[in-house]
Amino acid sequence: MNIGYLGPVGTFSYQVAHRAFPEEQHTAYTTISECLDAVAANEIDVCLVPFENAIEGTVNVTLDYLYQNDVPPIQAEYILPISQNIMVNKQRSSDWQEATTILSHPQGLAQCHDYLTKNFPHIKREAVSSTAFAAEYVSTHPDEKTLAIAPLFAAEHYDLDVVRANAQGNMHNETRFIALSNRKLAITDDPIETKTTLLLKLPDNDSGTLHTMLSTFAWRNINMSKIESRPTKTRLGQYFFHIDLDVGADNRLLDNAMVEISLLGGTVKVLGSYDVYKIK
Amino acid sequence: MNIGYLGPVGTFSYQVAHRAFPEEQHTAYTTISECLDAVAANEIDVCLVPFENAIEGTVNVTLDYLYQNDVPPIQAEYILPISQNIMVNKQRSSDWQEATTILSHPQGLAQCHDYLTKNFPHIKREAVSSTAFAAEYVSTHPDEKTLAIAPLFAAEHYDLDVVRANAQGNMHNETRFIALSNRKLAITDDPIETKTTLLLKLPDNDSGTLHTMLSTFAWRNINMSKIESRPTKTRLGQYFFHIDLDVGADNRLLDNAMVEISLLGGTVKVLGSYDVYKIK
């Protein structure tokens, strides 16, 4: 199989792709949208993209794409522990504290916000497309006083010095990655849970009817483990809801709840019923 | 009164501060957190910060601050129509299409994402602290092939050429700004609505109890106009909810609902009951 992931080499998605599918072929994509485009067009068998971080919340690019486009179902979810580390070119190890710029993905910068504000209040924070790009840039620009925030394996891959490990504010940081595919995945690990993810749009975008819609699950004792809203991008105050339910596929009560929501005027898009795995 | 806003001169917050409080003194702050810190410490009388954009959704920095800190109540909300425009230094008007870098606030870049992808697929998008900073940078660096995405009044203020007006993807774009203050504000305009905003944390962070909590409003015919979740930043899967209700202050039914939520184990923080105004 060909596994597409949010590249380049050295990103968290790269790490998940290699841990979850070590024997398969891997293809890096520059953006989340391009990776999702590729699996929708059957150019790859599986698309692995980040979906939610414990600190920064949902990855809006992924959620908005899933709402707006037709994609293969989610077949599995992987939870990866996250550490963000500050690293420098080895030729700059002695004067790294004089750095004037620090590069990372916006979520890397956000996760290290408290550390930077306290220790480097005047450093220029520059957002780039990935943590791996930041590490690669620092490795190829020894002449610049620039640091990168990236995972530890990026330091190994690009031969950089880690000058501050675990610079992220929150020690329990984790990120969820989803695997979308038209194929059932044969996974031998033990899952930690099973769930169904759906997107719900209310009739007339009336948040007041949300309670009625949620009643269709509550009456049937279907537990909801997550609910969040996102703007539909049409006008202020119009939302859709991203809901996780603690049930798997082929659940008769869930089927009945879906029919009832439809009768009540709601629109449901099921993204998949799947197992969740923890990456150590 | 002294009105603090998210600066520098020329931001959307600046525009709201001057339209809503034309006769008062205005103080610019570099970040949303500093502006909120200042009103919490009574250094300013009113703090005006962005809270939600129609396309990008809630301004998470603002919401997270309100969840984590004690602040004066929200006294009013202002809705401002948003246009994003591409502008260039007047010395570069002839060769602006050769620009290699475009600067804006991350939301400015996100709102013009489709236009840039179509027309400038290879331009380097650089996130800076505000649209006004982007405009100021372009005005002071005529030697660089750099564009800015900013509101029209920033082009006037920094004497730049607007080369593409309304480059944002969505024509109905608007942003909500909230005014926090310990003082009641004397506003003569007619409000378009009245609402109460609260933050709800469920007992044991169990999303399954959300339905029960929302029932306390539904049974009393208190309409909910918005609900969204945000991670509590403690660990993956723990959220608080930001809820808007279509009721004003001194509502006996609302008081009863709050008591009941507390008895059910929920924690509620009321951010304020206030009127909403539209800025033309």
Automatic annotation (TrEMBL), chains A, B:
Keyword check for Calcium, yes or no: no
Record site: Essential for prephenate dehydratase activity: T175
| Cited InterPro entries | ACT-like_dom_sf, ACT_dom, Chor_mutase/pphenate_deHydtase, Preph_deHydtase, Preph_deHydtase_CS
The pathway entry for this protein reads as: Amino-acid biosynthesis; L-phenylalanine biosynthesis; phenylpyruvate from prephenate: step 1/1
Q: What is its EC number?
A: 4.2.1.51
Residue ranges of every copy of the ACT domain listed in the record: 198-275
Q: Where in the numbering of this chain does the Prephenate dehydratase domain appear?
A: 2-182
Reaction(s) catalysed (UniProt annotation) = prephenate + H(+) = 3-phenylpyruvate + CO2 + H2O
Q: Name one Pfam family in it.
A: PDT
Q: What is this protein called?
A: Prephenate dehydratase
Natural source organism: Brochothrix thermosphacta (Microbacterium thermosphactum)
The UniProt gene name for this protein comes to pheA
